[in-house]
TrEMBL record:
Pfam families: Aldedh. PANTHER family: 2-AMINOMUCONIC SEMIALDEHYDE DEHYDROGENASE. Keywords: NAD, Oxidoreductase. Coiled coil: none annotated. Belongs to the aldehyde dehydrogenase family. The lineage of its organism: Bacteria, Pseudomonadati, Pseudomonadota, Betaproteobacteria, Burkholderiales. This is 2-hydroxymuconic semialdehyde dehydrogenase. Residues 13-482 form the Aldehyde dehydrogenase domain. The keyword NAD applies. SUPFAM superfamilies: ALDH-like. GO terms for molecular function: oxidoreductase activity, acting on the aldehyde or oxo group of donors, NAD or NADP as acceptor. Its EC number is 1.2.1.85. The active site is at E254. InterPro entries: Ald_DH/histidinol_DH (IPR016161), Ald_DH_C (IPR016163), Ald_DH_CS_CYS (IPR016160), Ald_DH_CS_GLU (IPR029510), Ald_DH_N (IPR016162), Aldehyde_DH_dom (IPR015590), OHmuconic_semiald_DH (IPR017628).
Length: 486
């Protein structure tokens, strides 16, 4: 069987003793390949390799030389585009279209975007008066933070991993990546790319395994790691923050969301239905920025619910490679159990089921996959766990509202603060509301429209820090002040 190995100091490393775990297909539950599970010794070796790289050839490269390598990485990803698409399709079960148009191109774009950023960033300087009248000059330089742990989720694995690896390397750091145990394939492929374009050994390392008492925790606790960037669940972020406290290491966190979608009666109706459909159901609802709470102004409430129902019922189930299919499975049987527990909870809390609510009847070759129906409810109280907790599945609850003030209150009544999408033709209202909703990103008449130069991150329990453009430099570099007495 094919084995995905750890990538340490420029080499693919088999686990001593052959310790492996199995990766199954979300589509039909068949075994896809096995993965070498890193031991604590492998994590040590990867961290040592990353530290060694900082003091070796990599640490001596000029910014221009690093930028050339990053462009090379982007070009090589593009050259091996089909390999990345196939690997990510197999790991996630999601469709070719989303891989080809969003997730894989964004991986290459991340390397280009941060190569551009680092080339053009400036630093500050001050002329300082001194008592002897001769003065001093103060200026700042940015230096790499060191060896960075990059701990990643499974929902858009390559895009989210490169969103961290690219700025880390652009700033001159080295990395040890811990991909999700559900989706290790593209992190391994990126190791091949790094070698092919001549990124020095030890700059990019990958250790495979799980979270607690496994590669994730060992990496986060490792004293050789200078900072940790993590995307995943808020609960995991809490555990990682405790690990980071030892040694007072910096963290950058992109965590969970329970995002509101708000539709006013004056919205472009069809665009709003399509926008909320994508926000709730793209990637089978497994996008942190997705919308699980929808608020619709009362005059169009019934019409909107019916239109979204029709749209949700139009999905075509199928394998990622099936060109007619538009909808994939959840990532795993375990995640399906979690999502179905919320479907059950909605029933228990008295929801009106608009559509879905269970497992679809599918042909025998798909029946063992982690499929669930796209699901819409109405009629739940805002106190229901279904409305308050992140489900991370293809589902949403829709509730009517009557005023701007009321819907701002509803949107803000959450421990999370990642994103919001507002649909209205009244732009004054849209700007006004965007300033009052406590989130990291507010989309108006759009959703998931990203400019990589903008700050990205979450408010409240949805994260710590901002990544994107120059904002990434705040985390991936230390600013050093240099004071010269004249
Ligand atoms: P997860 O938190 O379960 O796992 C993420 C990673 O952390 C995995 O690699 C896992 O092995 C590792 N991990 C788990 N426990 C750990 C520990 N104690 N120490 C160190 N590492 C540990 O998240 P997931 O289920 O893979 O991803 C889905 C979650 O990610 C959702 O909550 C979603 O909202 C969030 N997410 C957020 C963003 C964002 O930008 N805010 C983007 C994508 C996903």
């Amino acid at each position: 069987m094919f084995v995905v190995h750890n990538f340490i100091n420029g080499e693919f490393v088999e686990t001593a003793g052959g310790q492996t775990f199995t990766k199954r297909s979300p589509v039909d539950n068949t075994v896809l390949y096995s993965v070498s599970e890193a031991s604590q010794r492998h994590v040590d070796a990867a961290v040592n390799a990353a530290r060694g790289a900082l003091n070796g050839e990599w640490g001596n490269l000029s910014t221009e030389q690093r930028v050339d390598l990053l462009y090379g990485v982007a070009d090589e990803i593009t050259r091996r585009f089909d390999d990345f698409v196939e690997a990510e399709m197999a790991d996630t079960g999601q469709h070719r279209h989303v891989m080809e148009h969003v997730f894989i191109p964004r991986g290459a774009a991340n390397f280009r975007a941060f190569a551009e950023t680092i080339k053009t960033v400036s630093s500050e300087s001050f002329q300082t008066a001194t008592p002897d009248g001769r003065g001093a000059i103060n200026y700042a330089i940015r230096v790499p933070k060191g060896a960075i742990a990059v701990i990643c989720p499974w929902n858009a694995p390559f895009m989210l991993m490169t969103w961290k690896v690219a700025p880390a390397l652009a700033c001159g750091n080295s990395v040890v990546v811990k991909p999700s145990e559900e989706t290790p394939a593209t992190a391994s492929l990126l190791g091949e790319v790094m070698s092919a374009v001549g990124v020095p050994r030890g700059v990019y390392n990958v250790v495979n395994g799980f979270g607690p008492d496994s590669a994730g925790e060992w990496l986060a606790r490792h004293p050789g790691i200078d900072a940790i960037t993590f995307t995943g669940e808020t609960r995991t972020g809490t555990a990682i923050m405790k690990s980071a406290a030892e040694g007072v290491r910096d963290v950058s966190f992109e965590l969970g969301g329970k995002n509101a979608g708000i539709v006013f009666a004056d919205a472009d109706f069809d665009a709003a239905v399509e926008g909320i459909y994508r926000a709730a159901f793209l990637n089978s609802g497994q996008i942190c920025l997705g919308t699980e709470r929808v608020y619709v102004e009362r005059p169009i409430f019934d019409r909107f619910v019916n239109a979204l129902k029709a749209r949700a019922e139009s999905v075509k189930y199928g394998r990622p490679s099936d060109p007619g299919a538009t909808y994939g499975p959840l990532i795993s049987q375990e995640h399906r159990k979690k999502v179905l527990s919320y479907y059950e909870r909605a029933r228990a809390d008295g929801a009106t089921l608009v559509t879905g609510g269970g497992i679809p009847g599918l042909p025998a070759d798909l029946a063992s996959g982690a499929w669930v129906q796209p699901t819409i409810w109405t009629g739940l109280p805002e106190t229901s766990a279904v409305v308050r907790e992140e489900i991370f599945g293809p589902c949403c609850h829709i509730r009517p509202f009557d005023s701007e003030g009321e819907v701002i209150g509803l949107a803000n009544d959450s421990e999370c603060g990642l994103s919001t999408t507002i649909w209205t033709q009244n732009l004054s209202r849209a700007h006004r509301m965007a300033a009052r909703i406590d989130v990291g990103i507010c989309w108006i008449n759009s959703w998931f429209l990203r400019d990589l130069r903008t700050p990205f991150g979450g408010a409240k329990q949805s994260g710590i820090g901002r990544e994107g453009g120059v904002h990434s430099l705040e985390f991936y570099t230390e600013t050093r002040n240099i004071c010269v007495k004249l």
